[in-house]
Amino acid sequence: MPGMITDFQAKYFAYDLTRRQAPDDGERMASAVAGAQVDLNPHQVDAALFAFASPFSKGALLADEVGLGKTIEAGLVISQRWAERKRAILVIAPSNLRKQWHQELTEKFFLRCAIIEAKSYNQAIKAGNFRPFTQDNTVVICSYQFACSKAADVAATPWDLVVIDEAHRLRNVYKPSNVIANTLKGALSGKQKLLLTATPLQNSLLELYGLVSFIDEYSFGDLKSFREQFMAAAPDRVFSQLRDRLKPICHRTLRRQVTTYVPYTKRFPIVEEFTPEESEDRLYQLVSDYLRRENLQALPSGQRSLMTLVLRKLLASSSFAIAGALNSIAQRLRGKLADDDKFSELDLGEDYEALDETADEWDEDAPEPLTEADRRAIAAEIADLDGFAKLATSIEENAKGKALLKALKVAFAKADELGAAQKAIIFTESRRTQAYLLRLLSVSPYSDGIVLFNGTNTDEASKKIYNAWYAHHKDTDRITGSRTADMRSALVDYFRDQGRIMIATEAGAEGINLQFCSLVVNYDLPWNPQRIEQRIGRCHRYGQKHDVVVVNFINRKNEADQRVYELLSEKFKLFEGVFGASDEVLGVIESGVDFEKRISGIYQQCRQTDEIKAAFDQLQRDMSLEINQAMSQTRQKLLENFDDEVREKLKSRNSEAKDYLGRFEEQLLRLTRHELAPYADFPATGAFALRECPPWADARAVPLGLYELPRRSGEAHLYRINHPLGEAVVARAKAHGSAAHEVRFDFSSHSGKISALEPLRGQSGWLIARLFTIEALDAPEDHIILAGEADNGTAISPDAAKRLLGLAATMGEMDMLPEGPLTSLETHWDDQAGRIRQANADRNVKFFEAEADKLECWADDLKLGLEREIKEIDRQIKEARRAALAALGLEDKLAGQKQIKSLEHLRTTKRRNLFEAQDEIDRQRGTLIAQIEGKLRQNIKTESLFTLRWVLV
């Protein structure tokens, strides 16, 4: 690291590190990237910069292909907003992705987050907090359904940013029937929004209209004008116009464009077939027939299809899983007979861990009241359930369990062939099956290094792992304070360092990264393709060095199971290839739960092989129709840039971002070393050990110990500018005095060549530094203007002044004071300020012109729609005249003339209305432009930082 610095340089660094940059400045993201525990990928920085490049931006649609890290892109945007003190941030995601978002933002971006759902919302209300969405310095995360149900609260909160994941769920917002999308559009009107989806366009151009209008209602006219302008004209002209309109709001990068920066491995599928024993097969048939009964009292009528799905998944999982569920159901029925209210709801959450997430997206009919006939049937039903449970309990081994042992032998051999570590993650949908697999593997050749992962992890082995992990990481910021989050970290670390097999429920598919493992076993195969992709994605992700082996099981006796696997493998391409499921195919299903419903319906309704075959054939035909090849080509023409153009831009972005990041980190560490010299040791570049908390920092928030930037050892605290210690260091440096003093800069200590300073060696002069702030278009930007001059009258360029302040320096004796005002320096300073103001004005004029053009197009769209209505009436009048001339009878001719007069009257009215409507549109446009023009005026503020006498030795 370069040598020591003075208070003046520390003050300069502190202001430079925290200054607000222009919206389109590439250096703007440096603090967000430096403060995150993520690898720097240029396409992600590019997407984050695109998101709000214009101060007029109302949001953006980030549509990178699957696997390119849209969550990281959003995290960078959120971090930037956070650094700007704009911290009212909401993330809306599918319910099964909420934990993943929480973990990504917490662990990679060190942002405080809170998941808000019915339970926490109601607790907040009871505690007297009547605005639970308003949480200071906290990113709020919730599901689509919850945000919709609390739309009034969401609308009343002044959000600085709203991020919406899997935003293709909103693409049909133009349809009044899409209640959730329309409710959210109303609740989030006027808020800045960041929409994330790999599939912004699946079946119709109207989907693009829907997503763009969700962000900015002035990007296009109304639905009618969009149809007429972009869906009825010649395709080539449409694509050109539509592409231009989408360019400012939609950003898409493809996987093939980033292979220089992101290496991808492959997936290899292994299928292990098994044949159930006679007792297992009989249990399956008995429970299946039971679930098909018309009058079924064991399942709440309002949740019957959901619970049927759950029970079928448990039945396919293991005899142990279904035995527990059958006992729960029988217990509920006994409670109903006893009129015990506590048994009114059936809770299978202990048996099927993904129940809450599935139920959150599952629409059911309202429950029906219990009849007397129902009551009479309950006793008999209890007897049946007890019989099924007894049979299930009598089964001590499962054929699929034996198949697992065979599959592991084959899969580990394949992993060994690929050079991967001997580690496997086994996924099941049931905790009871998880316990069975633990017993099975504990007496197998794979008994060493087994770790469980589920939603609670209350078993003794997990507690022991957690306690050891906690003791090891005590006094580091690996300890988050959340036992749940720390337990997850402890189990993953154990699996990485000591374990061989992790047996995980669906909780393991969310928010953990297992790049060190390359063997995924789907002991239970979900019917939801998005869940499967999520599971495999724990291992097959950025940072994986080996090809990933994926193991699945097929029941030879079950035609439906075989067809489900075929569908997931051949149509969704989940288990092989470089990328897994394509965004195009995954985009066919807006919600994986809807797809599960369709498969569950086949299991429920079809008994015979030919019925099952016909139903799955129809499902595949439906999918093929929805995967529209023509629309795929349309998406390419509209949303994808030329590969070479993108690669060149990413190459440039990669170089710039690394330069900005390197300079940012160096300045922060030099500043920190200067301020913490009495309190810390600096044994290596990028690291320091804090011995004592400075009196000007908050000891409660600043632990002692090792700090690193970036973190490498895993044991250190990650040092960053928004860490409490970093914030204290910056505040301390900014408070340094500004009285004139001499500073001696040591050129010889610099190892490289600095051409700009060569002519100044051996000379001295004066330097002034001031913070120059311009605020226009609600986008303040800060500039530190350095004006310097040598004693011989030679002006120092801004670049030379920056490089001078970067040298090692010491405070010297002040042997002279300036004689009167430094007039020449003021002139140099004014020149720089003038250039900055002009550059700001020129850039803002371009932003203004782009926004004005958008509003012109919006107005023209609406006028076009009105004019088309009159043209349509003209056409109807011509047809009516032809019909009247062709009429044979007097009565028909009179009726024809009457229709013509009616249409002509309507046309006259429409023409009159057209002029009035066009005037009103022009008035609206004029009002909007006037509002924008009012924001163009520059507000200028200047703050003196210091004046110094420099000597370059």
From TrEMBL:
<dbReference type="GO" id="GO:0004386">
    <property type="term" value="F:helicase activity"/>
</dbReference>
<dbReference type="InterPro" id="IPR049730">
    <property type="entry name" value="SNF2/RAD54-like_C"/>
</dbReference>
<dbReference type="InterPro" id="IPR057342">
    <property type="entry name" value="DEXDc_RapA"/>
</dbReference>
<dbReference type="Pfam" id="PF00271">
    <property type="entry name" value="Helicase_C"/>
</dbReference>
<dbReference type="InterPro" id="IPR027417">
    <property type="entry name" value="P-loop_NTPase"/>
</dbReference>
<dbReference type="Pfam" id="PF00176">
    <property type="entry name" value="SNF2-rel_dom"/>
</dbReference>
<dbReference type="InterPro" id="IPR000330">
    <property type="entry name" value="SNF2_N"/>
</dbReference>
<keyword id="KW-0547">Nucleotide-binding</keyword>
<feature type="domain" description="Helicase C-terminal">
    <location>
        <begin position="436"/>
        <end position="586"/>
    </location>
</feature>
<keyword id="KW-0378">Hydrolase</keyword>
<feature type="domain" description="Helicase ATP-binding">
    <location>
        <begin position="51"/>
        <end position="218"/>
    </location>
</feature>
<dbReference type="InterPro" id="IPR001650">
    <property type="entry name" value="Helicase_C-like"/>
</dbReference>
<dbReference type="InterPro" id="IPR038718">
    <property type="entry name" value="SNF2-like_sf"/>
</dbReference>
<protein>
    <submittedName>
        <fullName>Helicase SNF2</fullName>
    </submittedName>
</protein>
<keyword id="KW-0347">Helicase</keyword>
<dbReference type="InterPro" id="IPR014001">
    <property type="entry name" value="Helicase_ATP-bd"/>
</dbReference>
<keyword id="KW-0067">ATP-binding</keyword>
